[in-house]
Each structure stands twice: as structure tokens, then as C-alpha cells.
Task: inverse folding
């Protein structure tokens, strides 16, 4: 009875993803401090990895799992966000957002083809609402977002990878959170470093040692209180909810991002944002409430015997 166990993980994924909607605030602070977007991306993999490395070494000496062998999961989940973050260096922000957040389509297709699980009618409705919401918000600036440059392809690839990573986690359900998280930052760091080398012309000037030392305490705080906890929740949730549902719920980042940008950055918040956000919210609510109603319908009636 998989659906009956998805309510709490679904809510956790939606909340954790929503927290990423205000992630632009520390990103701007780091940029103002001299750490440009490309270098900030690399630093936000390497710092959590360095913080977790001593624990991984102790676990390895004790014969416990570290996550080093979780190559596929690490590459897919960690690499997805590295691709997504770097796509902003090469294409318009709205195009990167829209192409990455086609994730629900990939997740639903993976459910159909790989897991042989035919989505419910509610899923198709939720998928339509989610994509319609994205289109309403971004279509004025992007039209139909066919990939046109390297940044577009990076964003699209990142969305496909995160959907595949969620499907892999849901299929194997690895024991223990630390190995999953360490694999995420380890292999994500490798891919981020490779992308940094390939995109060196777009990273901006290399920060000075004084700049790096100045932002290091903030990167450590960001890692301890945001990057590690939020990714832990998302990885945990991905093992417990279906890939298509995961893809729809992480759209909560878009809603919080629009509202926070309007409140604190003075960005536009008109009818498109309101209607699009409402459609995305309706999609996520439908997914969660449909599972809840499915659970209630399966609950024994009063006086029914136990089976």
C-alpha cells in the first residue's frame, strides 16, 4: 500500500523545495561579497563535502556505508543541481527555470516506462495544471521553450537527471541518510568541477584568497543550516514518493521564489504570477489530497474485521 505512506514525505518534499525559493537571498549576498555565481556553485558542493568527509572517514574505518559506492545516485542527484545552477550562466533565468521544471513530465514517463506504473487520472490532471502554471508564468518571456543554447540543454538535462535520480532512490530505497547525502555532494562536486572547467570563460574572475576566506564562514553556515538539511529531506522524500509526484511537488520552489522576489527584490508580481502560482499549487494539492483520499477509502469501516 505505497500510496498510504506518501503523505508525510510528500509534505516534507514540498516544504523543503519551497525553502529553495528564498535561496536567491544568500546567493546574492555571496555574489555581493565577490563570489560570482559559478564559483558559488562549486563552493556550495565542496564545503558540505569537506564538512562531511571526516564523518565518512570514521564510518569507513568502522565498516559502515559511506556512499562512495552510490555512484549512479550521486551522479544523478548531485549532478542534476550542478547542471541546473550552471545553466543560469549560459541562458536566461526564466528559460533555465522552465526547462528544468519540466521534471514532472520526466518523472511520470519514468513511472510509465521503467516502473510499469500507469499514473492515475488525478496525476494527469495534476501534470496538466503544473505545466499550465509554468507556461502562464513564463510564456510571455520564453514562448515555447525549445532548447536553443548550451544553457538550455544544461537546464533540460538537469531536470531529466533529478527525475531519474528520484526514480532510482525510490526503486532501491538505500538504508541510511548519510550515504545518500555524501554521494550527492561527492559526485555533485566532481560534476560541478568538470562543468567549471568546461565553462571557465563564464565563471567570472577567480575570487582572491581574501574573498574566499571572507565568505568561508557564510558558506559553512549555509551548508550546515540549509544545504545539508534541505537536501537530506529531499533525498529522503524521493525514496518514499513516486518520481512523477516528486517532480510536481518540487514546483513549490517556483511559488515561493516568485512571492519572495516580489516582496524583497521588487520584482513583478501580476496576474501571470498569481494565476500560474495558483495552478502549480493546485497541482501539488491534488497530488497530496488524492493520496489522502485513497488512503481513507482503503481504511477499514467501523466494525469491519481485521484482515
Result:
Amino acid at each position: 500500500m505505497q500510496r498510504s505512506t506518501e503523505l508525510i514525505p510528500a509534505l516534507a518534499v514540498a516544504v523543503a523545495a519551497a525553502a529553495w525559493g528564498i535561496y536567491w537571498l544568500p546567493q546574492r549576498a555571496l555574489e555581493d561579497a565577490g563570489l560570482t555565481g559559478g564559483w558559488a556553485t562549486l563552493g556550495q558542493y565542496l564545503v558540505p563535502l569537506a564538512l562531511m568527509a571526516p564523518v565518512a572517514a570514521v564510518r569507513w574505518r568502522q565498516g559502515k556505508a559511506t556512499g562512495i559506492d552510490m555512484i549512479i545516485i550521486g551522479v544523478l542527484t548531485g549532478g542534476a543541481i550542478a547542471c541546473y545552477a550552471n545553466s543560469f550562466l549560459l541562458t536566461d533565468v526564466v528559460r533555465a527555470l522552465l526547462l528544468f521544471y519540466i521534471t514532472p513530465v520526466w518523472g511520470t514517463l519514468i513511472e510509465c516506462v521503467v516502473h510499469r506504473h500507469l499514473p492515475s487520472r488525478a496525476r494527469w490532471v495534476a501534470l496538466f495544471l503544473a505545466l499550465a502554471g509554468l507556461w502562464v508564468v513564463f510564456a510571455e518571456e520564453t514562448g515555447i521553450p525549445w532548447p536553443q543554447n548550451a544553457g538550455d540543454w544544461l537546464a533540460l538535462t538537469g531536470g531529466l537527471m533529478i527525475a531519474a535520480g528520484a526514480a532510482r532512490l525510490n526503486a532501491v530505497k538505500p538504508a541510511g541518510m548519510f550515504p545518500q547525502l555524501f554521494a550527492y555532494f561527492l559526485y555533485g562536486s566532481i560534476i560541478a568541477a568538470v562543468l567549471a572547467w568546461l565553462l571557465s570563460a563564464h565563471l567570472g574572475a577567480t575570487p582572491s584568497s581574501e574573498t574566499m576566506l571572507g565568505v568561508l564562514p557564510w558558506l559553512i553556515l549555509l551548508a550546515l543550516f540549509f544545504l545539508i538539511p534541505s537536501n537530506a529531506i529531499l533525498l529522503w522524500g524521493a525514496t518514499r514518493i513516486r518520481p512523477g509526484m516528486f517532480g510536481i511537488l518540487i514546483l513549490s520552489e517556483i511559488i515561493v521564489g516568485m512571492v519572495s522576489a516580489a516582496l524583497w527584490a521588487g520584482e513583478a508580481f501580476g496576474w501571470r504570477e498569481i494565476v500560474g502560482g495558483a495552478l502549480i499549487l493546485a497541482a501539488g494539492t491534488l497530488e497530496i489530497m488524492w493520496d489522502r483520499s485513497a488512503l481513507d477509502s482503503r481504511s477499514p469501516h467501523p466494525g469491519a474485521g481485521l484482515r
The chain has a mean pLDDT of 87.
